[in-house]
Design brief:
- The protein is α+β, with helices and mostly antiparallel strands and 132 residues long.
- It has one domain.
- Helices cover 24% and strands 45% of the residues.
- A seven-stranded antiparallel beta sheet has the order 1-2-3-4-5-6-7, with helices on one face.
């Protein structure tokens, strides 16, 4: 993707292809040809929630994330995971990028939205299988 608009269109299409989900919030902000923000709140049929927040900048034709947060929680509001690049865990080798899994902080690089959605779908599949 070469522009902020192309990236936002790509994300929108990914969200449209999800099954059993309601977009409670979908907000795109194109601040300039090289700067945009994205805020999404997805509620899945079993009540789980995925919140996505990104601040994106285009530099020399490449997208870079000034900030990002992908927060996934179950229907009882217990956090399953959160990826972010807030600079509050300098002890993590991938600082500022890291992942919260419950109360643990682990090394992680910035995942793509596709990777986050795949992880959510895998977790949902495991939880649905265990409910049977």
């Amino acid at each position: 993707m070469r522009t902020i608009e192309e990236y936002l269109t790509h994300v929108y299409q990914l969200i449209q292809n999800l099954a059993e989900v309601d977009a409670e919030r979908y907000e795109e902000q194109i601040l300039s040809v090289s700067r945009g923000n994205l805020r999404i709140r997805l509620r899945f049929s079993e009540g789980a929630l995925l919140e996505i927040s990104e601040a994106i900048v285009l530099v020399s034709g490449d997208l870079h994330w000034l900030s990002y947060r992908y927060h996934y929680q179950d229907s009882s509001e217990t956090m399953i995971f959160r990826y972010d690049n807030a600079p509050h865990h300098p002890e993590v080798p991938t600082h500022p990028d890291h992942k919260h899994i419950g109360t643990r902080i682990v090394t992680s690089f910035h995942p793509s939205i596709e990777q986050v959605l795949e992880e959510v779908q895998a977790i949902r599949g495991q939880r649905c299988a265990s409910d049977r």
